C-alpha cells in the first residue's frame, strides 16, 4: 500500500516532502519483518535490517535461552546473539535443530 502511495504522490506532483514521507512509510513497513535464520554445516546466520550478517559457529554457541513471555529463542555466541522471534515459523523445530547441532540444552 505504501508503494502505491509513493507512486501516487509522485504522479500527482505533490511536494517533495510528502513524497519522502510516503517513502518513509514504505521503508518502515519492512522493519518488523522477521529476518531469516539459515543453518549450514558450520553454524547459523542471520542478517540484520541493514544487511549486516551475524554468524555463530555451532562450536562457539555459549548458551540457548527461551523466553516464555515473548516466545523468543536466543542463541548466544561470542559478541553475537541471534534471536528467533514469535514471528518466525516453527520454534519447536528450530529448538530441536539447534540443540542437535550444538549439543547444548535450552536454558529457561
Key structural traits:
3 helices, 108 residues, 7 strands, three-stranded antiparallel beta sheet, alpha+beta, single chain, four-stranded mixed beta sheet
Describe the structure.
- This protein is of the alpha+beta class and 108 residues long.
- The protein folds into two domains: 1-31; 37-107.
- 33% of the residues lie in helices and 29% in strands.
- It has helices at residues 2-11, 16-29, 91-102, and strands spanning 37-39, 43-47, 53-57, 63-67, 72-77, 80-84, 106-107.
- It has a four-stranded mixed β-sheet, with helices on one face. It has a three-stranded antiparallel β-sheet with strand order 1-2-3, with no helix packed on it.
- Helix 1 packs antiparallel against helix 2 (16-29).
- The relative contact order is 0.13.
- The model has no long low-confidence stretch (mean pLDDT 85).
Brief sketch in words of this structure:
It contains 3 helices and 7 strands. With 108 residues, it is of the alpha+beta class.
Topology of this structure?
Elements: H1 2-11, H2 16-29, E1 37-39, E2 43-47, E3 53-57, E4 63-67, E5 72-77, E6 80-84, H3 91-102, E7 106-107
Parallel strand pairs: 4-7
Antiparallel strand pairs: 1-2, 2-3, 4-5, 5-6
Helix pairs in contact: 1-2
